[in-house]
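Hey, can you fold this one?
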Amino acid sequence: MDLVGRTWRAGFPGFSVALVGFVLSACSLWQPRADLADGTTGTIVFQTQTPTPGDFARRNLDAPAAVIWGELSIPRSASGRVPAVVLVHGSSGVGNNMPGWRSELNGMGVATFIVDSFGGRGIKETATDQSRLATSAMIVDAYRALALLATHPAIDRNRIAVMGFSKGGAVALYSSLTRFQRDWGPPRCRRRLDARRAVSRACGATQTGGRRCEGARVRRRAPWLRRADPARVALPPGGAERETVRRP
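Sure. Predicted structure:
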């Protein structure tokens, strides 16, 4: 075995160096990113935490760490900084609907970051057992994604939205709560989260206390998304222009 190894390295030195370089490069792609200042796109690996509902409520910052990833796409026609949307999946994981939303939003000049909260945690789905991953942990994932996007040179950090589907809808909704932003959000998020859209809210969830929403409003669609392009995203009937207002 050792002899074969020595012979292989001696006979193909250039290939050996190239292979080692490729392996090191591949490994570096899966190192968690602290920021996106270099303007990278595609698969982004980042660190987050997995707090239980109790950890989340008590702001236990020592909750278990986790590494997850997302797919960042910048519109090809982008000139200058563009708005962005963090897309949060439901209980079945990243679904077939995500590419459609990415294409639609990119076509409107809006960047998208599809966050996969399951893959890095070894979870396939939570539809049959929601205790596999609490909504609170996915809220933290959304905040960490928001913090990363705010460092990207092509993204307008003042125009970042969270948009969720089913279980992800609850994430989008609860990420707007001032208390949660203060406890778990990055500094800029604590001041202002531009918009949230819950395409489909999770049922059966209640929240005691801390109901005040940032800016006292949860929009069904961000005003800057309406202004982005005359084209309309395919939404449920009446959903394109309707907004839900919740006041404390």
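Strands lie at 42-49, 65-73, 82-88, 111-116, 155-164, 195-198. Let me know if you want another pass with a different chain boundary.
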